[in-house]
Amino acid sequence: MSLSPPTFFKDGKDCESELQNTSLTSEDPLQNLCLASQEVLQKAQQSGRAKCLKCGGSRMFYCYTCYVPVETVPIEQIPVVKLPLKIDIIKHPHETDGKSTAAHAKLLAPEDVNLYTYPCIPEYEERKHEIVLVFPGPDSVSVEDISLYLHKHIPSNALDSSKNDRSDNLPNKRQKVEGEEDRDVGDINRKDDSLLKKVIFIDSTWNQTHKIIADERLQGLLQVELKTRKTCFWRHQKGKPDTFLSTIEAIYYFLVDYHTAVLKEQYKGQYDNLLFFYSFMYQLIKNAKNTVGK
Ligand SMILES: [Zn+2]
């Protein structure tokens, strides 16, 4: 793949400041992804910034305010990722849109992702038993323990309404399982695991995240912490550990963990295309850095 990195940054100033802030990990965790062809991005990158067909703004690859690709990137050539649950992303109003990777999620999984700008966020009160918030707080649990803790979060009225289904069906099914078929074990697990319907991510710097977390509408939600994974985000925040993931990385790793630990299915790259833009941009910056370093 031969790319000419400097054209990615339209003006030299961007490029310079990018590279100064760049902290790339030595190994490349993004190289074995199952991705759709990025040829469309290579072409777009060579022709430079293009117009957003919605707002007319000049953008690279996609518009970070309208969540659509620019006119040089035909939408049919952008992969669509189907997610096993819904995702809400809450953005801080002062977050620079162009620097956020939250738009990647909306562009690549438009059916399952919604973005909100704080303080305009949905009311979660009635559905607390089927929603988790990704945040490494003192009480946060791991992805694989979600089902365990969500049970405790089920409000009494929700239990009452589904009581008949559960208590009538489970004993019968269990007997069957003990006797013979393995398949039913999966059915039972699946039934319980499908309790989780939505995951909330916060897209902002660390300090701003704390303000959003303190909002009363987000209290009482089960908080989930991701397994330790190192970021390869090129806009890594100074003074923060390298386990502080970009939003699209956090979403991706959450889904991979959820798929294997909760759905108990083999992961075969189903969500890799969430990193379609991310891995490409990462590679561009990595190449640019190498060029400058020579
Ligand atoms: Zn736009």
From TrEMBL:
Its main location: nucleus. GO terms for biological process: tRNA modification. It is found in: Nucleus. One of its GO terms (molecular function) is tRNA-uridine aminocarboxypropyltransferase activity. It catalyses: a uridine in tRNA + S-adenosyl-L-methionine = a 3-[(3S)-3-amino-3-carboxypropyl]uridine in tRNA + S-methyl-5'-thioadenosine + H(+). Keywords: Nucleus, S-adenosyl-L-methionine, Transferase, tRNA processing. GO terms for cellular component: nucleus. Residues 159-185 are annotated as: Disordered. InterPro entries: DTW, tRNA_Mod/Golgi_Maint. Its EC number is 2.5.1.25. It is an enzyme of class 2 (transferase). Pfam families: DTW (PF03942). The keyword S-adenosyl-L-methionine applies. The keyword Nucleus applies. Residues 59-290 form the DTW domain. Catalyzes the formation of 3-(3-amino-3-carboxypropyl)uridine (acp3U) at position 20 in the D-loop of several cytoplasmic tRNAs (acp3U(20)). Belongs to the TDD superfamily. DTWD1 family. This is tRNA-uridine aminocarboxypropyltransferase 1. It comes from Monodelphis domestica (Gray short-tailed opossum).
